[in-house]
């Protein structure tokens, strides 16, 4: 049998698994609920049990696998194979994940943080076209990212490389959870888009269904903002334009510094599609110098929820001899 790799995308509510061939094609995928009770102590045993159950079911053995890769929340020590500070998993103390999974499955194991792993997935099988230089930005509840340069994921001195969500786009801006002001995350995450809408609503006097909803005290989502903008609500267009300005500014500075072949935008907010991408690109062009404008493309992510398991599986390719 041809060798395979196994990818795990560990999240706060579900843990996704996929078995891929070495060309990156998914052959099987499944998921289990993530049981975060008892300080998250059930998570790793459940992962091991699920893998062993699956292998038994399909008459596979550890020898059929090159390795297992996993994307996880929290801060990862790749050398030690540990995770700490993954609060949505209840992992407050140091977790010896690699040792437990290798002992439980007999398969070599590697992991990285979830945004980095999604970046690897989009680069390998998605919008990144397997180019050596790709930047990935995910716009979800927060804003995350991953930077791949010359075929390698960048980690930095303290593992903070690729924290694109904390690029300052407005020094006078909103307070961020990281302690500073005006981070990209405060204005382009799902909640950030709504925050920008509330701020701009204060000074907007024209006719707008979106503004009427806000003035009425109705809860709105980032999707509402984009949907109203697509219906040519002037106020919603103003909000989208502001969000795209911030994204274009951050992408422009990433482009000027790194000159990747592509900057790939994914995550829930990117469901706004070409409407979002084209506007980010317009500002990106304004904020980049000509050689970068011409050689770095702004793209939409293509893999959706599969980016995590595919990228995780690609971590296991390091075990190919
Ligand atoms: Zn921040």
Task: Report on the architecture of this protein.
It is a single chain. With 321 residues, this protein is an alpha/beta fold. It has two domains: 4-120 and 306-319, ATPase, nucleotide binding domain (Nucleotidyltransferase, domain 5), CATH 3.30.420.40; 130-301, Nucleotidyltransferase, domain 5, CATH 3.30.420.40. The chain has helices spanning 37-40, 43-57, 97-105, 114-125, 184-188, 190-201, 209-215, 222-230, 234-258, 274-286, 290-295, 307-315, and strands at 4-10, 14-21, 26-33, 65-72, 75-77, 82-84, 109-113, 134-139, 143-149, 152-153, 262-266, 297-300. It has a five-stranded mixed sheet with strand order 3-2-1-4-7. A hairpin with a 4-residue loop joins strand 5 (75-77) and strand 6 (82-84). Helix 4 packs across helix 12 and helix 6 (190-201) packs across helix 9 (234-258). The mean pLDDT is 96. It binds zinc ion (ZN). Residues 166, 176, 178, 180, 183, 185 line the site of zinc ion.
Lay out the secondary structure.
Blueprint (H helix, E strand, L loop, with lengths): L3 E7 L3 E8 L4 E8 L3 H4 L2 H15 L7 E8 L2 E3 L4 E3 L12 H9 L3 E5 H12 L8 E6 L3 E7 L2 E2 L30 H5 L1 H12 L7 H7 L6 H9 L3 H25 L3 E5 L7 H13 L3 H6 L1 E4 L6 H9 L6
Parallel strand pairs: 1-4, 4-7, 8-11, 11-12
Antiparallel strand pairs: 1-2, 2-3, 5-6, 8-9, 9-10
Helix pairs in contact: 2-3, 4-12, 6-9, 8-9, 9-10
The structure holds zinc ion.
